Amino acid sequence: MTDFASFLYSHAFSDMGLVRKNNEDNYLALPEDGFFAVMDGMGGGDAGEVASQLIRDTLSATMTGTADESPGERKYCVQQALHKANTAIRAFAETHHYGSMGSTVVSILFDPWNPDQALACHVGDSRLYCLRNGELFLITQDHTVGNEMLQKKQKIDKLSPRLLHVLTRVVGGGQQLHPQWTELSICPGDIYMLCSDGVWGMLDDATIEAILASSNNPQAITELFRQYVLSAGADDNFTILPIVVGPFDATPFTPDPIEKEESDLLLRMAEERVDY
């Protein structure tokens, strides 16, 4: 099995910014389990803060201690945890009479059998970036009105900027939840960054690329992002979670045939079931 802590180095920082009165962002870093996530809550009062905390707590309870589980079991656990959090947020909103309440989530799940593979999972517009060989890549696609119209090649020039950024998917937003999964190939030297829109909304891609390329120390990267976002005005909560990938043994683990078959089945069915 993969020893994630031997090659994944991370650091995280979350702040309410210079305008907001509370911080509705949250994050989860489980380096020994090869799992990381960022959440950005929304809603009146403290509803957003509660929503992001519910996702964090559910994922933490589900994913802590899973480093030795199969890739299929781990994907299935993340998917079910998000469904469980979705139901919990909706129940909380109904009990407390909140008209709207929810949270984005973006996560990266490293493969315990194949160190050079991972899965990204996201709902909403919190993002996952990758810096590889000095070049920045955006892994996730924002679940917003504007972005989804662009993907359908629809004209957006007549839409107001505010409408363009309206979220089309959030955890807690409806009975049906559809997280988006993306397969990743991992290379030593990669730097991944999970962040809320309070980061990428303040900084352009060139600045994000330059900050990630400035160091292979995740704490130094986090501190530089903090300085840049605050200098840019920090008009929203912001959360930064960089992960630096060090050298690793790329030799895959060979499970027994039954275990492999079960894992493959869970990988296929994880997105189709609500079983918690």
- Rg estimate, integer Å: 18 Å
The CATH topology comes to: Phosphatase 2c, domain 1
CATH superfamily: PPM-type phosphatase domain
Shape, principal axes of CA atoms? globular
- What's the SSE pattern? EEEEHHEEEEHHEEHHHEH
Topology:
Elements: E1 8-10, E2 13-15, E3 25-30, E4 35-43, H1 47-63, H2 71-95, E5 101-110, E6 117-123, E7 127-132, E8 135-138, H3 145-151, H4 161-164, E9 180-185, E10 191-195, H5 197-200, H6 205-213, H7 218-231, E11 238-245, H8 257-269
Please describe what this structure looks like.
With 276 residues, the chain is an alpha+beta fold. It has one domain: PPM-type phosphatase domain (Phosphatase 2c, domain 1, 4-Layer Sandwich), CATH 3.60.40. Helices cover 34% and strands 24% of the residues. The chain has 8 helices and 11 strands. Strands 1, 2, 7, 8, 10 and 11 form a 6-stranded antiparallel β-sheet that branches. A hairpin with a 4-residue loop joins strand 3 and strand 4. The chain is globular, with a radius of gyration of 18 Å. The two termini are 26 Å apart. The mean pLDDT is 94.
Characteristic key phrases:
single chain; 276 residues; alpha+beta; Phosphatase 2c, domain 1; 6-stranded antiparallel β-sheet; 5-stranded antiparallel β-sheet; 11 strands
